[in-house]
Amino acid sequence: MTRQPLRRLLGAASILLITLIMLEVAVRMWGYAQPHIYDPIYRPYDRTADIPYIHKANLTEARARGLAVINTDSLGLRAKIAGASYGAKQPNEYRIALIGDSYTFGEGVTRTEDTYAQVLEDTLNQRQQAVAVKTFNFGASAYSVKEMVATLQYRTPDIQPDFVAMAIITSDFNLARTPRIDEEGYLVDQKLHRFSPPGSMIRRALRHIHLIYVLREIGVRWAFPSPDIGEMIVRGETPETYEYVRQFKKLAEERGLPYVMVLLPRMRTKDWGAVSDQLTRDRIPYLDLSSLKSEFTEEQYRASRFDPHPSAAVHRRIGEALADYVRHQPGFVR
């Protein structure tokens, strides 16, 4: 009699195991998890707690989120040349610091040459020869406006920028979106951090299971719904965290830095409403690029089937539009 319950238990366990294996195979064939798999490319930033992580320096052909293959320079910024270093700014050099989240970093864009940061640099250099323009891409996945202000304060002085752009989407006003970093260099969602299994070997093994990424997405959406900042803005409300934008303005002006807020286009997101109105009242220069999304179908806009980040084509239009803006700034030599 005691063997029958054991057989039932083993039978149920076998069915569950076979089901999970079949689901894993199906998810791998589906391709959903691919944009979420990446190398341990992050490291803690030790100069302030307001920046929990940056990219590791001198990476060569590392896999980043969104199927991007990246190099990083000596500052840990995405760059065409791995390990590139920069001395003091030269008299004929014009440096632009781009601060943002995964959109600015170029998540979903395989080649660095196709990111809007690089398109901006190339376009400005093609259209004039008076100065050599160099862009510095301080974008990092899931940064909020808080980390962006801290980046301006702590990281940009190293490059002595002539112009600074803070590029945002509506989600950047949600401070809870910024994850933590583990000891290996992976990001861990704040909501799921307490559920993270102990031991790096277990976590490393789980990262190779594609089904985990589907279950995680379902779990986060169901158990930890995020506030819809976009809808709040459309209703005419200004997020409390807009105060970080004012801090950005104050810090840039204290340093005598020309700056602009770039309102990036995002598919399925309405206009910036209250935010653009508030920027106008606060006399903060901004460039609203949200209309660029109308130039693309949803398929053309998306980096890939399962990645809603902007594609290389969208990045090109952002870079070109930003180049036109910079060229007409008083401090830019044409």
Describe this structure in words.
This protein has 334 residues and is α/β, with parallel strands linked by helices. The chain has a domain of 182 residues: SGNH hydrolase (Rossmann fold). The protein is built from eleven helices and 14 strands. Strands 7-6-8-11-12 form a five-stranded parallel sheet, sandwiched between helices. It has a three-stranded antiparallel sheet with strand order 3-4-5, with no helix packed on it. Helix 9 links the parallel strand 11 and strand 12. Helix 3 packs across helix 11 and helix 4 packs parallel to helix 8. It is globular. The N and C termini lie far apart (90 Å). The mean pLDDT is 90.
Low-pLDDT sequence parts: none
**CATH architecture annotation name of the domain at 93-174 and 228-327:** 3-Layer(aba) Sandwich
Amount of helix: 25-40%
Query: Average pLDDT across residues?
Result: 90
Report on the biggest sheet.
Answer: 5 strands, parallel
Task: Write down the Rg.
Answer: 22 Å
Number of strands: 14
Number of helices: 11
Largest sheet, order of strands side by side?
7-6-8-11-12
CATH fold-level name of the domain at 93-174 and 228-327: Rossmann fold
What is the CATH level 1 assignment of the domain at 93-174 and 228-327? Alpha Beta
Q: What global shape is seen?
A: globular
* Helix and strand run: HEEEEEEHHEHEEEHHHHEHEHEEH
CATH superfamily of the domain at 93-174 and 228-327: SGNH hydrolase
The secondary-structure class comes to: alpha/beta
Strand content: 5-15%
Termini Cα gap = 90 Å
